[in-house]
């Protein structure tokens, strides 16, 4: 007799729990359009929430809410798809409801398991039983339940679970059918399976397998131990052997009235196929052990298999009644477990088997945490129709692995594995029960409820499952991770090894799909273009966050940089549209830009952002052009606000700072093969123009300080973009050698000076210093500190000395030298004097300042050397005569002040410099007073060119040597020039090499003799020769062994060597050989005077010596000074 409640709700009218919510029929696109942070995706015509879907599988959360379950207790769960019932058991009660009715708050049948004074140690094992055969169609669909106390072995059978409730459960508990299995000591039930019509089968910890009949021959409920199929493996003296425990019991097909196939397997691989019968004797159809052969198939590749292999589960395959899939595991060192799927084909006739294929799961390495998991489930085994591919599910406590294999067992089978994937759950989502139908598996978690996981029967995923694996998980994370309270863990398990190329391809594919709206999950149209692009910005953020967690050190930096660039473009587009929507001025310029580029806004923003930089640059050009024509502060504020928001905040702050450096932890030195998009083209130039224009307008109309934050943001942006461009050039040696790079550095130095000046005017001194410090812009740090010189003491410089050392000192000292601030240079930082010494040692160009410090340090010899270097350098510049004279004089004093023997060579050199300077000064005065080229040379163009060149240098005080001064003296129309030339030559003879000295000596006396023209020395007392000799004798210029003018010297053609003239005059005239011809002509003119000149020369020399009081003893045979008379 069947008990029924007095009142029973009509099932077709049971809508009380159905939620009336308008969003239940929202599609995925519609939900994204709502753009809520707490995103949910609801299946079209049910309350199911789609948690994940892709081309391979989807996961739905069934609507039933689990608030009624006790949260703190240990629970078991069971899902029966035949009856549509779900059951949860704790140690006190059972909770049963219809899980497929679509209600968020279903009717719950709560069944008490025992009276109040009783207590169960753990939840029982429970299975649903088939409904009793009856004429009532409704009753025939109501299942019963069989409850097995795992510890005591007491079995209870309840009929028609729907009629039981909290009120009637004590009555039904008393009327339940009961059987005591009389378990042995330390024996307990480990699993129960429904094998109706044969009965239920119970496995115990001692290896026993018990068949329990639950109906009599008339179909009435009862409980009876029908058969002990397998005896206990424990004896009086043995202990429990886990390898002999049954780990899997899978019912097979019904083969006759009251008969059904059951396959079982132990952890040690003992595999049995049973023919169970409720009315006849049950018997074994097959008994084999597969352990050794599985071990043999593995240990070549996995040496750890030996000693760690254990069989976990098995399941019949749908295509072949003799084929089974077996799940086993081996240890993988200390990292977890490897899981193996083996396909075996059995032969009941010969009681044998063969391993058809072996396949390792590639996506999971979890250690086994529970004896109940993992579980192997093949839903297709319940379907009479055989598809081309079969999906195998492996259920773990916190994950499900899916793999799709060929249903056809032939020689190509190992090559037909389509794909493998994993669905991971969050740590607090533990699977405590499951069930399946022919299309899906159902997983139960006490917080989330029931999840339905179904696979596409014939996935379009590529054969290389790894290639689609990365992209699949990326898409899941991007488009589904914001589903409210999702239990799914989207991050890829760390143990999975993926090829870099596969990861990069997946990342770039997803990134481009978001950038260009190519993903099927992104709606191409929404309420506005801005709304749609904001959605893509959020999706890209999710992509970057997923990359940060999963792929940070697994892909090349260039790929990460490209991802950041795509995000920055999207974010900048979002800001551009937002400002265009809030400002009529910007909106007009934006539309003008689009029109000028022949672009439709919606098409461009949705599908064409690869060309955004050019459009954005054009937009900035329009803004800059418009603002440059006005001084309206409101217009400028609008434009600058946009520039700050779009470039500084959207690109640099949100993109570069948040993701490039903080999120993805990229080194600032990492560069792409091309310039960053914001550093390319004219964006930086236009931003700089707007920055300078804005500061000019503010200075004229308002106080700069009132808009300091905007100026500071723009300066930061300009600094960053400029440094990115410089870093990109430095990344390749060939780039640093280009003219473009040199111009970039020059422009950068120029711009930073201006930026800092503006910021300092806006009272942003400290912030300005921080920026310069961040970019190691030591030149700017010095500039800023010097600009606020009166506000800071020497202590303000100390941190930078300590941080940057000599590099900072070099910049600071250079600035002091350039500005002539010698007081601070030598006195402000005495503690860093060694750095100053090093600075001058490494920078000889500052010798005209460096000598001061060496004098302070009493290093006089070094001071003289520095001064001479300064003189040589300054002599190469125009109008430095006085400076050179002073420096040479001080150098001479420094040599004399050195407390050691005077270095004669240094003194000679210094005296030569002084004499040269004196000669240059005298020549300058003479030329200014009217001295000019001797008239006898007016017809000689080369001489005129030479004199013009040298006199021009004299006037400019530019690069005139002593040789050239002597040359000019001998060409002038003033006869005292020969005396000054002779004086320079004789006093500085040691400065000339022998050839040069002889050349100049002969040149001087020839031109002196011919000053008045080639004429006899009849009235020699008025001649230049006599004048020069007389003064030279009076001033005792000659030394012993000095040569006086003689015939041989004057007519010696060796002093007119063309080679000498080419070497000496090539830089002064175009045809130096013409000068050699002039010299040769002078020799010929002297020869024309005849040998009487020999006697005349002696007469002039003797007369001049006499006039001077005979200061010299002269050898008139050779015209040479023999000695100097001592007065």
UniProtKB/TrEMBL annotation:
Its main location: nucleus. This is LAMI_0H09978g1_1. Belongs to the nucleoporin Nup133 family. GO terms for cellular component: nuclear pore outer ring. Residues 53-452 form the Nucleoporin Nup133/Nup155-like N-terminal domain. It is found in: Nucleus. It comes from the Eukaryota. The keyword Mitochondrion does not apply. GO terms for biological process: poly(A)+ mRNA export from nucleus; protein import into nucleus; transcription-dependent tethering of RNA polymerase II gene DNA at nuclear periphery. It holds the Pfam family Nucleoporin_N. One of its GO terms (molecular function) is structural constituent of nuclear pore. Keywords: Nucleus, Transport. It comes from Lachancea mirantina.
């Amino acid at each position: 007799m069947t008990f029924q409640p007095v009142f029973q709700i009509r099932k077709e009218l049971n809508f009380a729990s159905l939620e009336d919510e308008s969003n239940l029929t929202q599609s995925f696109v519609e939900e994204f359009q709502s753009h809520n942070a707490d995103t949910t995706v609801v299946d079209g015509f049910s309350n199911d929430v789609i948690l994940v879907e892709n081309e391979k599988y989807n996961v739905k959360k069934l609507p039933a809410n689990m608030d009624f379950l006790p949260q703190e207790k240990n629970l078991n769960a069971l899902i029966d798809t035949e009856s549509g019932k779900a059951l949860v058991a704790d140690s006190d009660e059972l909770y049963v409801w219809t899980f497929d009715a679509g209600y968020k708050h279903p009717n719950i049948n709560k069944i008490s398991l025992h009276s109040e004074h009783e207590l169960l140690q753990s939840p029982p094992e429970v299975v649903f039983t088939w409904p009793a055969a009856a004429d009532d169609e409704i009753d025939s669909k109501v299942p019963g339940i069989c409850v097995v106390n795992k510890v005591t072995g007491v079995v209870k059978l309840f009929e028609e679970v729907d009629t039981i409730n909290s009120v009637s459960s004590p009555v039904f508990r008393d009327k339940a059918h009961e059987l005591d299995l009389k378990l042995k000591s330390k024996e307990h039930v480990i699993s129960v399976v429904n094998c109706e019509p044969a009965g239920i089968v119970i496995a115990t910890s001692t290896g026993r397998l018990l068949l329990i009949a639950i109906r009599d021959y008339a179909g009435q409920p009862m409980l009876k131990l029908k058969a002990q199929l397998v005896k206990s493996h424990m004896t009086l003296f043995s202990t429990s052997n886990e390898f002999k425990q049954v780990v899997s019991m899978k019912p097979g097909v019904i083969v006759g009235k009251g008969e059904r196939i059951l396959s079982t397997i132990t952890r040690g691989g003992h595999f049995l196929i049973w023919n169970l019968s409720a009315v006849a004797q049950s018997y074994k159809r097959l008994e084999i052990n597969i352990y050794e052969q599985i071990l043999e198939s593995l240990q070549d590749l996995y040496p750890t298999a030996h000693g760690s292999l254990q069989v976990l589960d098995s399941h019949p395959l749908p295509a072949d009644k003799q084929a089974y899939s077996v799940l086993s595991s081996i240890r993988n060192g200390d990292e977890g477990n490897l899981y193996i799927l083996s396909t075996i084909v059995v032969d009941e006739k010969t009681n044998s088997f063969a391993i058809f294929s072996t396949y390792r799961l590639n996506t999971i390495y979890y250690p086994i945490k529970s004896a109940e998991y993992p579980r192997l489930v093949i839903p297709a085994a319940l379907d009479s129709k055989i598809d081309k591919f079969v999906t195998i599910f492996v259920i773990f406590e916190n994950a499900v692995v899916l793999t799709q294999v060929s249903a056809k067992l032939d020689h190509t089978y190992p090559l037909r594995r389509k794909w493998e994937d994993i669905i991971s759950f969050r740590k607090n989502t533990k699977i405590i029960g499951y069930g399946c139908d022919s299309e899906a598996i159902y997983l139960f978690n006490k917080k989330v409820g029931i999840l339905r996981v179904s696979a596409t029967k014939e996935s379009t995923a590529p054969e290389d499952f790894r290639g689609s694996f990365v992209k699949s998980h990326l898409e899941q994370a991007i488009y589904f991770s914001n589903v409210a309270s999702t239990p799914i863990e989207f991050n890829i398990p760390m143990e999975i090894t993926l090829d870099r190329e596969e990861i990069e391809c997946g990342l770039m594919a997803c990134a481009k799909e978001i950038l260009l709206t190519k993903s099927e999950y992104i709606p191409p149209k929404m309420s506005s273009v801005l709304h749609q692009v904001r959605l893509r910005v959020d999706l890209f953020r999710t992509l970057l966050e997923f990359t940060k967690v999963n792929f940070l050190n697994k892909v090349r930096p260039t790929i990460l940089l490209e991802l950041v660039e795509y995000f920055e473009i999207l974010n900048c587009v979002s800001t551009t549209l937002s400002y265009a929507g809030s400002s009529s001025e910007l909106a007009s310029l934006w539309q003008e830009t689009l029109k000028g580029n022949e672009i439709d806004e919606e098409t461009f923003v949705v599908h064409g952002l690869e060309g955004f930089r050019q459009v954005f640059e054009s937009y900035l050009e329009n803004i800059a052009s418009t603002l440059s024509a006005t001084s309206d502060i409101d217009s400028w504020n609008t434009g600058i606000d946009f520039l700050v928001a779009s470039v500084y905040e959207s690109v640099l702050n949100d993109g570069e700072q948040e993701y490039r450096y903080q999120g993805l932890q990229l080194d600032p030195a990492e560069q792409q093969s091309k310039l960053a998009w914001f550093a390319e083209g004219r964006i930086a130039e236009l931003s700089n123009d707007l920055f300078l224009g804005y500061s000019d307008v503010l200075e004229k109309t308002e106080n700069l300080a009132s808009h300091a934050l905007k100026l500071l943001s723009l300066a930061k942006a300009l600094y960053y973009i400029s440094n990115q461009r410089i870093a990109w050039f430095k990344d390749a040696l060939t780039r640093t050698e280009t003219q473009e790079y040199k111009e970039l550095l020059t422009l950068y130095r120029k711009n930073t000076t201006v930026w800092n000046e503006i910021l300092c005017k806006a009272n942003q001194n400290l912030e300005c210093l921080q920026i310069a410090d961040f970019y190691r812009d030591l030149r700017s740090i010095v500039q800023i500190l010097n600009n606020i010189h009166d506000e800071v003491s020497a202590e303000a410089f100390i941190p930078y000395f300590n941080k940057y050392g000599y590099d900072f000192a070099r910049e600071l000292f250079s600035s002091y030298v350039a500005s002539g601030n010698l007081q601070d240079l030598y006195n402000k930082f005495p503690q860093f004097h060694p750095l100053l010494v090093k600075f001058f040692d490494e920078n000889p160009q500052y010798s005209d300042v460096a000598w001061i410090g060496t004098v302070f340090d009493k290093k006089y010899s070094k001071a003289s050397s520095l001064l001479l270097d300064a003189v040589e350098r300054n002599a190469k510049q125009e109008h430095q005569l006085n400076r050179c004279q002073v420096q040479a004089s001080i150098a001479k004093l420094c040599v004399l002040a050195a407390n050691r023997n005077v270095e004669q060579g240094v003194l000679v050199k210094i005296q030569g410099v002084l004499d040269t300077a004196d000669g240059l000064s005298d020549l300058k005065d003479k030329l200014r007073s009217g001295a000019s080229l001797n008239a006898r040379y007016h017809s000689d163009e080369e001489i005129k060119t030479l004199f013009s060149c040298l006199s021009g240098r004299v006037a400019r005080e530019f690069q005139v040597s002593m040789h050239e001064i002597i040359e000019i003296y001998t060409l002038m129309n003033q006869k005292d020039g020969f005396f000054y030339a002779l004086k320079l030559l004789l006093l500085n003879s040691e400065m000339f090499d022998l050839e040069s000295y002889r050349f100049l000596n002969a040149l001087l006396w020839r031109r002196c003799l011919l000053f008045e023209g080639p004429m006899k020395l009849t009235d020699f007392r008025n001649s230049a020769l006599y004048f020069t000799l007389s003064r030279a004798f009076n001033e005792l210029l000659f030394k012993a062994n000095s040569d006086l003018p003689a015939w041989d010297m004057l007519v010696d053609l060796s002093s007119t060597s063309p080679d000498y003239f080419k070497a000496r005059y090539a830089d002064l005239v175009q045809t130096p050989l013409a000068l050699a011809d002039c010299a040769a002509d002078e020799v010929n003119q002297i020869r024309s005077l005849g040998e009487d000149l020999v006697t005349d020369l002696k007469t002039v020399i003797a007369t001049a010596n006499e006039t001077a009081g005979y200061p010299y003893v002269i050898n008139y045979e050779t015209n040479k000074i023999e000695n100097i008379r001592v007065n």
